[in-house]
Amino acid sequence: MRAAQYYGKKDVRVEEIDDPPVGEGEVEISIAYAGICGTDRHEYVAGPILIPDAEPHPATGERLPVTLGHEVSGTVEAVGEGVTAVEPGDRVTVNPMLPCGECQYCLAGKHNVCVDLGFVGLSGGGGGFAERLVVDEDNAVPIPDDVSLKEASLVEPFSVGLHAVRHSPVRTGDSVAVFGTGPIGLTVIQAARAAGARRILVSEPQAGRREIAEEIGADVTLDPTEVDPVEEIRERTEDGVEVAFEVAGVDASFSQALRSTQHDGHLRVVSVYEDDVTFNPNEVVTVERTISGTNVYTGGPRSGEEYGMTLSMIESGAFDPSALITDLVDLDDVVAGFESLLSDDGQVKILVEP
Hints:
Layout: E1 2-8, E2 11-16, E3 26-35, H1 38-46, E4 66-67, E5 71-79, E6 91-94, E7 97-98, H2 104-107, E8 118-119, E9 132-136, E10 140-142, H3 149-152, H4 155-166, E11 175-179, H5 183-194, E12 199-203, H6 207-215, E13 220-222, H7 229-236, E14 241-246, H8 251-259, E15 261-269, H9 282-285, E16 290-293, H10 303-316, E17 325-330, H11 334-343, E18 349-353
Parallel strand pairs: 11-12, 11-14, 12-13, 14-15, 15-16, 17-18
Antiparallel strand pairs: 1-2, 1-4, 3-5, 3-9, 3-18, 5-6, 6-10, 7-8
């Protein structure tokens, strides 16, 4: 079968590889769509970062080259012995999390902070930029009839946004700031609105993404290259927002997001960073602000929990994946898709179709 194999920085090759075998408890999926994620883009530009290079990943025993793609939807082609949750012909999306299942965090049900956490499409174990994918039964989450395969390919990033908001201090009636409106930032806006945020203020330098943010629920959008977002947010709220989400992954936005919160406010860090950030701890201590991180969503035997919530939100219309999709490319053109994300400010989410 054809698959996009990652060999290193700006080295992705569409090649013929062996079809993956279907073992006991496993599911073979014919892939319909797979989204190019911000994490994939980081790996393409600056990796390998999370992709195993010199040493095999403990979750898979594999190192590069690996097949990319972890935002996946498709149709079940075959199932291994003992599989009962899905059957051939079922439409599914893939929760790509690969926890060890044995560490203290997995045993406590916190699979998203597993000590050896891996992901399909990053750590080995196949990937979505291919014609077929084999995953454990737990990783295949059925799609409701009223959700399309195209929409379901974005359940993964929407579950990141849902988890970030669901485990934050956001309460009905709160004001919220979102710094960075790439795909994950846009899902955070929708999740915050669904959680009852009264006012959502956004800082984003790209005009096209500000427009999408407004379309999906942002009340105020600010260009941080033209205005001071901290001053603007504090002037437009009661001395700052209750909760800010940092989704840009750069030093400047981290500091701005922190300072945009009111005294006793909270900063929720969603981004994965390529570089260190610096800030003055007095901005936390003297006004009793708090900072927390958020990592993906529930997984392992809990794969269907937050994925199921996200699917329900899409089904009800509370989440709108179509607003994020800006292009569709063939698997053979996946490198052109990566380059388009780097060069075209109008691109948000590009789907790959085998």
